[in-house]
Each structure stands twice: as C-alpha cells, then as structure tokens.
Design a protein that fits this description.
The complex is a heterodimer. Chain A is an all-beta fold. In chain A, 0% of the residues lie in helices and 50% in strands. In chain A, strands 2, 4, 5, 6, 9, 10 and 11 form a seven-stranded mixed β-sheet that branches. Chain B contains no helices and nine strands. In chain B, strands 1, 3, 4, 7, 8 and 9 form a six-stranded mixed β-sheet that branches. A three-stranded antiparallel β-sheet of chain B has the order 2-6-5, with no helix packed on it. Chain B is globular. The mean pLDDT of chain B is 97. Chains A and B meet through strand 5 and strand 10 of A and strand 3, strand 7 and strand 8 of B.
Chain lengths: 122, 109
C-alpha cells in the first residue's frame, strides 16, 4: 500500500519560507512523477507543481513560479517543496500526490497524503 | 484560471447525475487529459477518472466521463449515499501546467 506522509507545515510570517517534505513508502518511488496541490480553508484544489520520476522535468503553476521549488531525493523516497516569499492568501493544506506514470503527462494522481497545514500570518 | 463547474448538483438514490467542467480552447479543448477527483469532508482527494474516461483500479463503473469541445463531464449512475462529496475536474492547460475546476458539491437527496 502506498503511503505518503507530509511534514514541515506550520506558522510562518508573510515573506517567510518553509520547506515541506513528503515521505513515501510502499512504492518504487523513482518510477513515478509526484505533484503538490494545495487547498485553502473552505476552498477548492489548486495544482502547484509536478516533478518527473527522475527529477529531470519540473512543472509549476504561474502563481508560484519563481517562489516555490519542487525537488526529490529518490534515495530517501522523499519529495520536497521549498516555499519562499509566502503570502497570507497561501494559507492552506498542502498535499503531495503520486502520479500514475513516470512523466507529468496525465494530471492523474492516484495516491495522496493527508496534507500539512501552512499558515501564513503575522 | 480555474475551470468552471456548477457549485452544486443533486439527485435521488438510484438516479444519474452529470457534473460539467467547462474550460477553454487552451486547456480542456485540445487535450484528452481531464481527470476527476472525489473529496469527502476532511479527507484527501481520490482519483475517479483520468484521461477523460479511464477508471483507476477500484473505482466503480458507475462513474464515467466524456468530453465535447471545451467541456468535460462526469456522470454518476445509480447514485448512492456514499457518492455525496465534492468533485473536482483537472485538465492539462499547456505550458507545463495543470488547472483544477472550481468544484461541485454533489448531494444525494
């Protein structure tokens, strides 16, 4: 069974930074693309970023390009998201998700973590 | 910007309902890369369909998908109480980006 466990969320001031982690188990981690999606309280889902299985290709939403960085360490079966220059409106639950293939070419994520809450507030 | 979905759709047990997902000629239109997610309150999303009409293992065949032009649709047949949830579509939007829909609350009457 695939398990994804996010960590690293918390309270951060506007303009601050955080690094989120997503520890994966129960899968051949490097065989799958991974993605980050967030959900503000009471709001809908927002796709943020994706990375191919080997880390050679990355995708970003325009809203986070240049501020967020996705990466992965396949030896540690862990996905990361570095969040910089955070804004109050980015308060949300941040989910990591496993895609169904090696490339970020379907938008289909078949396993999700339970999310980590990031609160941006002074 | 986000794909457009109706805020809510309802139906009685056993009925069929359809949730639409309207995009543009830059996202839904040119690509058969629409997926659908179900989300129960306080839970993580669950993949229900991908590439318009493909079902992952374990998803009931009561869920089906289609696309016409810039609009994709999710149909739930034989509506059951457990289907009550929020549903989101997602589409490739070109330029290495994806976009979700606004979400639809499905209520079983």
């Amino acid at each position: 069974e695939v398990q994804l466990l996010e960590s690293g969320g918390g309270l951060v001031q506007p303009g601050g930074s955080l690094r989120l982690s997503c520890a994966a188990s129960g899968l051949t981690f490097g065989a799958y693309a991974m993605s980050w999606v967030r959900q503000a309280p009471g709001k809908g889902l927002e796709w943020l970023s994706g990375i191919s299985g080997g880390g050679e290709t990355t995708y970003y939403a325009d809203s986070v390009k240049g501020r967020f960085t996705i990466s992965r360490d396949n030896s540690k079966t862990t996905l990361y998201l570095q969040l910089n220059s955070l804004r109050a409106e980015e308060t949300a639950i941040y989910y990591c998700a496993k895609d169904i293939g090696y490339l970020i070419d379907t938008g289909a994520s078949d396993s999700w973590g339970q999310g980590t809450l990031v609160t941006v507030s002074s | 910007s986000a794909l457009t979905q109706p805020a809510s759709v309802s139906g009685s047990p056993g009925q069929s309902i359809t949730v639409s997902c309207t995009g543009t000629s830059s996202d839904v239109g040119p690509y058969n890369l629409v997926s659908w997610y179900q989300q129960h309150p306080g839970k993580a999303p669950r993949l229900m369909l991908y590439e318009v009409n493909k079902r992952p293992s374990g998803v009931s065949n009561r869920f089906s998908g289609s696309k016409s032009g810039n609009t994709a649709s999710l149909t739930i047949s034989g509506l059951q109480a457990e289907d009550e949830a929020d549903y989101y579509c997602c589409s490739y939007a070109g330029s290495k980006t994806y976009v979700f829909g606004t979400g639809t609350k499905v209520t079983v009457l």
